[in-house]
Design a protein that fits this description.
Helix content is about 40%, strand content about 20%. The N and C termini lie far apart (about 45 Å). By secondary structure, it is of the alpha+beta class.
Length: about 90
């Protein structure tokens, strides 16, 4: 079985979703961030200084974090699409 990699329609869809997430992340748009996270007790967010388990912990973190100093430069983005979708990034904070 052969898998299609970097299908243009999938790359476009994932890129648009990623851009929406990134914009919400750096502007601290909590409503959009909450919408984009899986609303489940099984959701996990591994952060730099915290690990959060379940949608409620993640939403509480987003609502309580400072809205300053969130800008970052994305230096490298890759698409790897095989039997699903994955978006990789390397972020460097100024």
């Amino acid at each position: 079985m052969s898998a299609e990699i970097n299908r243009a329609d999938i790359v476009r869809e994932v890129s648009e979703a990623f851009a929406r997430y990134e914009a919400a992340l750096v502007s601290n748009d909590v409503a959009v961030l909450d919408e984009l996270f899986w609303n489940s007790p099984h959701a996990i967010r591994y952060g730099v200084t915290e690990n959060l388990y379940g949608y409620d912990e993640i939403a509480a973190f987003r609502a309580g974090r400072p809205a300053v100093g969130l800008a970052r430069d994305l230096a490298h983005l890759d698409h790897h699409l095989r039997d699903g979708v994955c978006r990789g990034e390397y972020a460097f904070h100024p």
